[in-house]
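hi! just following up on the protien thing from before. the input was this:
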Amino acid sequence: MTRRTCLFPDGLIFASGNRGKFAEVAELFAPLGAKIIFGPERASLDVEEDGLSYAANARLKARAWALETGLPALADDSGVEVRALDWRPGIYSARMGETDADRVKWLLEALGGAGDRYARYVASFALFFPEEGFCLITEGILPGRITKTPSGARGFGYDPIFAPQGFDETFGVIPDGVKRKISHRALAGYRMLDILSKDSMIE
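and the predicted 3d structure came back as:
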């Protein structure tokens, strides 16, 4: 682990103002041995997410925060995709209401009594290095289903109505420690950590 810290001698910016995500990311990327810095502690940015994919939006945010702070920046973009809704809302997941409760209500009403409740959480991570001008991108996909009613108060976003494959409970009920090991964000993070652990990334 100690060899990897040379990649981030001054720390790594998490390019978001979402403290819930920051807590997950700080724990997930702890093996780097680098200080993970909550974005708003260093800058105040409102990046327009007009990309056409999770990866594109994550890169837009990571690049903007990296150039603003001069530090490598890690950003994510994620959403829920529902098969019965032609994989909507997708990259627009956060725009389906003003609050998490509004977004959950929208999705349940849009899905109605549909028998097909299959859904998947998708996340992309982008890590932008300002001095080198390059970006690493990974993706994680977690299959599951949308429940008919919300359950639990943990997590954020659509967590109270998303039950991951292999579980009866939603992420609103599943303990945070479990969620942080199996989530779409965790899967994308593991892939990023794997890339960063390669000798070619360090030497």
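Helices lie at 19-28, 54-69, 100-111, 176-182, 184-196, 199-202.
The chain has a mean pLDDT of 91.
cheers
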